[in-house]
Amino acid sequence: MSTSTPPLPSVQGQEQSPPSSELQQMDNILLDYPMVSISYCVRCKWMLRATWYQQEILQTFGSKQDPVITSSCNEVPKLTVNSVILKPSLVAGTFTIGVKVKKYDNWTVIWDRKMDGGFPDSKVVKQKIRDLVRPGLKMNHLDNVSATNNGTLLSSSTMSGSGSGSPTPAISIPRPRTFTEECLDCTRTWEG
User: Fold this and answer.
1) What sections of the sequence does the record tag as coiled-coil (predicted)?
2) What CA–CA distances, in Å, run from 13 to 8, 9, 10, 76?
3) Is the pTM of this model over 0.70?
4) Which helix (H) or strand (E) holds 63?
5) For the domain that residue 96 is a member of, what is the CATH number?
6) Contact between residue 39 and residue 98 where contact means Cβ atoms under 8 Å apart
């Protein structure tokens, strides 16, 4: 039989907030660390891309108990990544992935579309998360070295395939920029 807390008396038709210990317990249930945050531009329509990265991260890191992290947390069962949150942004062109390993740590940005030049391959995101959260964790096929531009998705202006598997410099032909280089919806509708 479980015991429940009695309802808090209401003041002028509003319920009082629960005691801070209950809030802290609820916070530990709903949000847990290590945590990944994906901030994306809603006007660029990058929510689907953000949810895809979220699914990839959870499928890789959120499916098995991590004995190393569990042993450092008073034996409470933990996963390698315990929370992946999506944060919509109204800042034009935003697509940033950050990691917070412990509650009082600072956020570490592992990918920023504007600074890193496009969207990362999911393999690169997973490797960067692993290197922060659990360095040395073996990830089998994800540990193989990639021969392509450090995992960044390429645009046709920077490289073109030669058919031999290695990228070669592209011929300089003027063309519009791709979505990995510039958010056309944002620049046309928001900024001018």
Assistant:
1) none
2) 12, 9, 6, 39
3) no
4) none
5) 3.40.30.10
6) yes
Contact 129, 99 (CB under 8 A): yes
Q: Containing domain of residue 96, as a range?
A: 31-144+180-192
> Does 89 fall in a domain?
yes
- Flag whether 112 is in a domain: yes
Task: From first to last of the 192 residues of the chain, give the pLDDT tens digit.
Answer: 444 444 444 445 555 555 666 766 666 667 788 899 999 999 999 999 999 999 999 999 887 777 776 666 666 677 888 899 999 999 999 999 999 998 889 999 999 999 998 999 999 999 999 999 888 888 776 677 655 555 554 333 343 444 444 444 444 445 455 544 556 556 554 444
Q: What b-and-e string marks burial along 139-166, b requiring 16 or more CB atoms within 10 Å of the CB?
A: eeeeeeeeeeeebbebbebbeeeeeeee
